[in-house]
Amino acid sequence: MKRTRRNHGATFKAQVALAAVKGDKTLAELAEQFSVHPTQITEWKQQLLARAADVFGGAPPPADTPDLKTLHAKIGQLALENVFLAGKKKVSGTISRSCHPTRPADVMPSGRLSTRNPRQGCAEEVAGSG
Q: What CA–CA distance (Å, rounded) separates 103 from 109?
């Protein structure tokens, strides 16, 4: 049966972590006493030891918040690149496959002569039936 998730308060966590730091009992005994998994006790103990200096006015740990100006600049740059590349895609997508400016107008890919009207520009080429 699935157990509901328990949320432990800060005082309970501190009590368990201090008991683990004392070292009077093993992790298994503490886990049984407090009904908490041994891994959780170890995690709380490490957090207590890492932040113990803060209690006596030590320097706070460096904030993990990134620089927002840098992130906003990067977002703007990527948005501009997306717009630019989307424009390039549209331009290259509009070229018709039947329009070949490098090939002579009167010769088709198969080598046969084209019957298209040269005034039509890039109109579809019509092959002679035969």
A: 9
